[in-house]
Specification:
It is a single chain. By secondary structure, the protein is mainly beta. The chain is built from 3 helices and 14 strands. It has a single domain, classed as Lipoprotein localisation LolA/LolB/LppX (outer membrane lipoprotein receptor (LolB), chain A). Helices cover 11% and strands 39% of the residues. Strands 3, 4, 5, 6, 7, 8, 9, 10, 11, 12, 13 and 14 form a 12-stranded antiparallel β-sheet that branches. The protein is globular. The two termini are 22 Å apart. The N terminus is likely disordered.
Amino acid sequence: MPLFQVSCASLLLLMSGALISSCATVRPTPSTPNHQPSYSSISETPIVPAQAQRHQANLLPVVDFKINGRMGVQSQGYGVSGNIHWIHTKENDVIDLYSPLGSKMAAIVKNTNGAILTSSDGKTIRAEDAETLTALTLGWRLPLSKLSDWIVGRPAQGAVSGVAWDEKGQVSRFNQDGWEISYLQYQSEIQPALPSKINLRNPKMNVRILIESWDITPQTLSTPDNNSAQTH
């Protein structure tokens, strides 16, 4: 059984990104790294267009990033929205989560020592990795280790299906690990173009992400050292 329930003070950890819901923000809603992923199971486009290959190659150097944005989650008849500040490097992730009004709800740190979530009241949950952390809080595992690739606009390492590209060679949709990832908009003023509106869906959850700003300049990024998430 998960440590927290979605109905109140639950933790909806997202996309190496994450979400937190609370009594104040939950509202019932109607039910309704440098690698090439394996395209062996692509069903719609068996040959990757040359323009798409170029765009994916341009994304390969994008390993470290910082984003600011908003997100919303619908799950089990409830909805939650909030703001996210995420710094990702090859070794570490630091994710700060805020309510729609700007109050900090939680901080998540993930590194080689494990993952730890600290809520606004100082309570902590520790786990060996981010997927285990979501299993403890949600009752099922979210593929957070893949989200750092998905949010950049590329499949993570492994089998992919249903890949589609837009006229600029940017990925518009694919399926991976039981999730359908759709890219509704890209920020073309930065190069390579990076997503600004993303939708992730599986049978249990629907996650919408609006990215308001990107920073992919490594020297501007910093995260806590690896000791800060030790799972004692």
